[in-house]
Amino acid sequence: NYENEAYFGQGTKLTVLGE
């Protein structure tokens, strides 16, 4: 399991959830 949050310009947020 892992959780990864990445932030890109203009405050856009990408969250990735996986095993």
State which percent range the strand residues make up: over 45%
Supply Rg.
Answer: 9 Å
| Distance N to C terminus | 4 Å
Total beta strand runs: 2
Contiguous low-pLDDT stretches (5 residues minimum) are none
Approximate shape: rod-shaped
Query: What do the pLDDT scores average to?
Result: 75
Sheet of most strands: 2 strands, antiparallel
Number of helices: 0
Determine the structural class based on helices, strands and strand pairing.
Answer: mainly beta
Key words describing this protein structure:
about 20 residues, about 0% helix, single chain, mainly beta, two-stranded antiparallel sheet
Would you summarize the structure shown here?
This protein is mainly beta and 19 residues long. Helix content is 0%, strand content 74%. The protein contains no helices and two strands.
Describe the protein.
There is one protein chain. The chain is mainly beta and 19 residues long. The protein is 0% helix and 74% strand. The chain has a two-stranded antiparallel sheet. It is rod-shaped, with a radius of gyration of 9 Å.
Task: Give the topology.
Elements: E1 2-8, E2 12-18
Antiparallel strand pairs: 1-2
